[in-house]
Amino acid sequence: MSNNNDIRHRFEQAFMPNYGVPPVALARGEGTRVWDVDGRQYLDFVGGIAVSSLGHAHPALVEAVSRQVATIAHTSNLFLHEPEVLLAERLLGLLGAPGRVFLANSGTEANEAAYKLALKYGRREGRGYFVAAENGFHGRTIGALSLTGKQSIRDQFGPFPVDVRFVPYGDASALKEAVSGDCIAVFLEPTQGEAGVVPPPDGYLVAAREICDATGALLVADEIQSAIGRTGHWFAHQADGFLPDILTLAKGLGGGLPIGACIGFGEAGTLFDKGDHGSTFGGNPVACAAALAVLDHLDLDHVKAAGARLRSGLEAIDHPLLKGVRGRGLWLATVLSEPRSAEVQRAAAAAGFLVNALQPDAVRLAPPLVVTDGEIDALVAAFPAILTEAAQ
Ligand SMILES: *Cc1c(COP(=O)(O)O)cnc(C)c1O
After folding, report:
1. Distance, CA 117 to ligand 1 centroid (Å)?
2. Residue nearest to atom 5 of ligand 1 (CA)
3. What is the pLDDT of residues 250-289, one digit of tens each?
4. Closest-CA residue to 285 (of 100, 131, 72, 119)
5. Which residues are listed for pyridoxal 5'-phosphate binding in this entry (predicted)?
């Protein structure tokens, strides 16, 4: 039995059956390259789901985390530490707007904080419901799940304690219709990630900002997948030309270490009173040191150029299974003419590339933000044969 099969078998015996168990067990990585437990090498165009922003084993991340864990690994929120302050200041500086930060350990927790902030606002103002987008994804804990617009993962865990109304993503008039003076907050991803890397039509997010301004609803931008350089901008909303009231971050922020952030701008930054929220691990010194290393070493110009190279390379492929390419920066989906993404993922792995069958007809590419031109060219060169293999 191969090491991959052995680990997979043992995983299935020891773990709850909530994941479709993947066939590959990764042992180590370096930059965009990873090796599985049988010694096979792959180019990683998944990036741990848009997380491994500096790639694998980046020397700066290794150094920052090693130094911090050898100095002080944990303080709890009963004591302050400098890395958390440096990180919060750094994020606010990149955002260029006055705000306040709460640090969590994951995306769903960042959204829980946003949800509780919004609930406080709603109670104070006597407002009663939330609006979120169909097919949107905000996380798996009950609060974030209640805002997640995917019935298959949501409905069996309802009813939820709060009224959430769903609107089609990208439709500004449907949003306008749904948001009244009784609406607490609107939760939106600037590009829908899990739905298939789906950017909205131009002007949609600015319209959402205007609708919220006109009604007094808070606008929450879930940038858990879209921020920290993924689109070639620090934050996707900066390119979209709007500022949310609340912003949530996670995935790429820690470069692989678990960290999330909820940032409130203006009045939304001071809605929590002492005792309203907290986390034992949130803002952990090691995770903060990792995030600071990520922010120090990301090169947005590289992301823009590499993203354009990947996109134009894929767009130049003429293949009956490839219908198009969508997304932003180094965050793309190849859209298939038939629902064969699982076959594409399998054929890609056999050819030495990790890609993600995100939707039946969409394959996500979210490589480390340090992916090289040569690595991009290798994927583009291999992709037609991968498609042909998958079409059979
Ligand atoms: C991944 C994701 C989440 C959930 O993050 P977790 O760290 O898995 O809890 C929430 N929102 C968006 C947009 C995401 O992509």
Report:
1. 18
2. 107
3. 999 999 999 999 999 999 999 999 999 999 999 999 999 9
4. 72
5. 107-108, 137, 222-225, 280
Ligand 1 binding site (Cβ under 6 Å of any ligand atom): 106-108, 111, 137-139, 189, 193-194, 222, 224-225, 250-251
Q: In testing the pocket of ligand 1, which one of 19, 138, 191 has its CB within 8 Å of the most ligand atoms?
A: 138
Predicted structure pTM score: 0.98
Q: Which CATH architecture has domain 61-297?
A: 3-Layer(aba) Sandwich (3.40)
Pocket test for ligand 1, best of 225, 226, 281 (most atoms within 8 A of CB): 225
Which are the catalytic amino acids?
A: 137, 222, 251
User: Does an H or E element contain 152, and which?
Assistant: helix 151-154
CATH of 4-53+299-391, picked from 2.60.34.10, 3.30.200.20, 2.40.30.110, 3.90.1150.10, is: 3.90.1150.10
Task: Classify residue 53 by its DSSP letter.
Answer: T
